[in-house]
Automatic annotation (TrEMBL):
Lineage: Bacteria, Bacillati, Actinomycetota, Actinomycetes, Kitasatosporales
FAD/NAD(P)-binding domain span: 12-324
Keyword Nucleotide-binding: yes
Protein name (record): FAD-dependent oxidoreductase
Keyword Nucleotide-binding listed: yes
Keywords: FAD, Flavoprotein, NAD, Nucleotide-binding
Length: 479
């Protein structure tokens, strides 16, 4: 095979590697600042979130949660007792992924004046990127001000004997599957594992969740994982903790998992939701003195440490593997790149400054779209204590709130805030229960803005809503 045809180098102010939502947002900000910008994508413009993560997973989960909520409303519950129409749910999911076509995303890039290069982009020394297209052409791009790596992360399969030949699902296959499996084994109890267990169980699969640790959602408050596990079991799933998979074998349509207690489990499909790694292994990082396949260490403006031109934004910097945090970082990085390009001598990099992604440290919000929903922001009690804070936790049974009882008959849920005793502000909040995702932004504002507890007393929750839990929590603060 001959060498790819190379074109003359083309200079841009900014070159972005990766056209997912994070890269798109960086490009949008730099173009808005008047900087010429090129973006490089080897797969679909729109990235993991649009086609294999956020959008398809939530499209699968929305009818599941809506039916569960309806079944808890007297007078409505009898009307929604039948099974979900799995074909209709999958078709709706396909619509939300644009049937895995990115025409609309390309049109948007063109509308803001960003040049798209399709192909594999690699660094080739400082401020220099080569792009090899699917047709074998090679483009050389140079960046006057910045190269931004926003290539995201990928699912990692563990080293388990037999797994390579078992055609196991990762998050991509779990969100894009064309049919409901009869039996699904889910290995891992984090966000992907619990959400996909919730979705496929409701769509008709017999689900077994296998967790190496003591419970689900281990990075959140313990009661979150407990309530989600209870709900999965009540829905018909099996949740087994303290077990590991030691071998996997596929024979025809059946996958056999051997566990460390010498028992075996058979399934039609197995999903391994056991971790992620950065997509940095084939980006030419060695050409600029960085380790291929590693996470990128960045400062709060998302500039790679030791560099004055290379940025790592989104999953690749391992600060918070969440689309909304990556887009937040993109806004910060875009502003920082524009400021440096214009010669601004001193950037606003103090905490909560215009060029500092401070929220990555103190106020990361996250929703797990299981039934019940889990919504959390900031630090858990354990994380706050580990960080050296003097804290107090206040817990409220959400069933005690009038609005919760109206929302769902037999409402079950729990809320906790973590109070900084020295500052008398909130360090974190966690809500578990139907509809609790809509409580999260208020909590995020309280944590981010460090609103004093005494000031929160004057933020009166409307009655009767689930938000009245704030009154109960604040009453607990006063003791």
């Amino acid at each position: 095979m001959g060498q790819p045809h190379a074109s003359a180098a083309i200079e841009y102010d900014v070159v972005v590697l990766g056209a997912g939502p994070v890269g798109e947002n960086v490009a949008d900000r730099t173009r808005a600042a008047g900087l010429s910008t090129a973006i490089v994508e080897s797969e679909l413009v729109g990235g993991e979130c649009s086609y294999w993560a956020c959008m398809p997973s939530k499209a699968l989960l929305r009818p599941v949660i809506a039916r569960a909520d309806a079944r808890r409303v007297p007078g409505l519950s009898q009307a929604v007792q039948g099974p979900l129409d799995a074909d209709a749910v999958l078709a709706h999911r396909d619509t939300y992924t644009s049937h895995w076509k990115d025409d609309g995303q390309i049109d948007w890039l063109e509308s803001i004046g960003v040049r798209l290069y399709r192909g594999q982009g690699r660094l080739d020394g400082p401020r220099r990127v080569t792009v090899t297209t699917p047709e074998g052409e090679r483009h050389t791009l140079t960046a006057k001000h910045a190269v931004v790596v926003s290539t995201g992360s990928r699912a990692v399969l563990p080293e388990v004997p037999g797994l390579s030949g078992a055609h196991a699902w990762t998050s991509r296959e779990a969100t894009s599957a064309k049919a409901v499996p009869g039996r699904l084994a889910v290995v891992g109890g984090g966000v992907v594992g619990t959400e996909m267990a919730t979705a496929w169980q409701a769509l008709g699969a017999q689900v077994t969740v296998l967790v190496r640790g003591t419970g689900l959602l281990p990075r959140m408050e313990p009661f979150a994982g407990e309530l989600v596990a209870d709900a999965l079991r009540e829905a018909g799933a099996e949740v087994r903790t303290g077990v590991s998979v030691t071998r996997v074998a596929r024979t025809g349509d059946t996958v056999t998992l051997t566990l460390d207690d010498d028992t075996q489990l058979q399934a039609d499909e197995v999903l391994f939701a056991t971790g992620r790694a950065p997509r940095t292994d084939d980006l030419g990082l060695a050409s600029v003195g960085l380790t291929p396949g590693g996470w990128l260490d960045v400062d709060d403006s998302c500039r790679v440490l030791g560099s004055d031109w290379l940025y790592g934004v989104g999953d690749v910097n391992h600060r918070a593997l969440l689309t909304h945090q990556g887009k937040y970082q993109a806004r910060i990085a875009g502003a920082a790149i524009a400021a440096r390009a214009s010669g601004t001598p001193i950037l606003e990099t103090d905490p909560w400054g215009a060029h500092a992604a401070t929220a990555d440290h103190a106020a990361v919000p996250q929703v797990v779209f299981t039934d019940p929903e889990v919504a959390a922001v900031g630090l858990t009690a354990a994380a706050a204590e580990q960080a050296g804070h003097r804290i107090r936790t206040v817990d409220v049974d959400l069933a005690s709130v009038a609005g919760a009882g109206l929302y769902a008959d037999g409402y079950r849920g729990h809320a906790r805030i973590v109070v900084d005793l020295d500052k008398q502000t909130l360090l974190g909040a966690t809500f578990v229960g139907p509809g609790t995702s809509e409580l999260l932004q208020a909590a995020t504002i309280a944590v981010t803005a460090e609103v004093p507890i005494e000031r929160l007393w004057h933020a009166v929750p409307a009655y009767p809503t689930i938000s009245e839990v704030w009154l109960r929590l604040l009453e607990g603060c006063r003791g």
